[in-house]
Amino acid sequence: MNREGLHLTLPRSKTRPQRGSLAGRTEAALVQACLDGQDAAWREVVDRYGRLVYSIPKRYGLSDADADDVFQAVFAILFRKLDQLREASRLTAWLVRTTHRECYRVGKKSGRYADLDRAIEHVTEPTQDDAEAWETRHLVRQALRQLGGRCEELLTALFLAPGKPSYEVIARQLGMKVGAIGPTRARCFQKMEKALLELGLPPEDHARSTGKAYQPPV
């Protein structure tokens, strides 16, 4: 099973219906919703943190198959230990630590990664700022998907495309006039701010989200 096919049912005798949007929930609230038997909350956890978890074995140079094994193992462990997670507000840090351990386990088992020991030595636990930055980037990506259409295309091209393409290149790619990019970007930013507010990002973080948060995943 690859990373797109992780489907686990919460081990509860009776699941409860989802109440309100889960997109803007804090880590602690998401964990509690999972413990309350909300299957939608578990799907949100996998969707929100899956990219982060998968990026770590790829950073170590693990193959796609081994990265898939790490991904599956990490979420299976989380699934089993949800009710033991003492610091639910530090879910991101827990996932990063667990993923590093699973990278080491899978990598050593395969015997294909000679430099794995040296790479693991330099791994440090993410700070709270790192965790908050990841959460912000997740909300930004989700807001982009909600905007869709021209705004998603333009903001992705402006802030997520490798190499920081010029307005001329972006205009050709999107079939726009160069002079229309600035005004369209301003309108899209306004829509983005509204979407981020609805997703739960505090207003004081909006300025950072329209700049620093438009970065590739960790």
Average pLDDT, all residues: 76
Low-pLDDT residue intervals, each spanning 5 or more residues = 1-5, 9-20, 209-218
Number of domains: 2
CATH fold-level label of the largest domain: Rna Polymerase Sigma Factor, Chain: A
Number of strands: 0
In the CATH hierarchy, what is the superfamily of the largest domain? RNA polymerase sigma factor, region 2, helix turn helix motif
Mind telling me the CATH class of the largest domain? Answer: Mainly Alpha
Pick out its properties.
218 residues; Rna Polymerase Sigma Factor, Chain: A; mainly alpha; Arc Repressor Mutant, subunit A; 2 domains; globular
Summarize the SSE layout with pairings.
Blueprint: H1 27-35, H2 39-59, H3 64-81, H4 91-110, H5 116-121, H6 128-147, H7 149-159, H8 167-174, H9 178-199, H10 206-209
Helix pairs in contact: 1-2, 2-3, 2-4, 3-4, 6-7, 6-9, 7-9
Notes on the protein architecture:
The chain has 218 residues and is mainly α. The protein has two domains: 1-126, Orthogonal Bundle (Rna Polymerase Sigma Factor, Chain: A); 127-218, Arc Repressor Mutant, subunit A (Orthogonal Bundle), CATH 1.10.10. The chain is 64% helix and 0% strand. It has helices spanning 27-35, 39-59, 64-81, 91-110, 116-121, 128-147, 149-159, 167-174, 178-199, 206-209. Helix 6 packs across helix 9 (178-199).
Provide a compact summary of the structure.
This protein has helices spanning 27-35, 39-59, 64-81, 91-110, 116-121, 128-147, 149-159, 167-174, 178-199, 206-209. By secondary structure, it is mainly α.
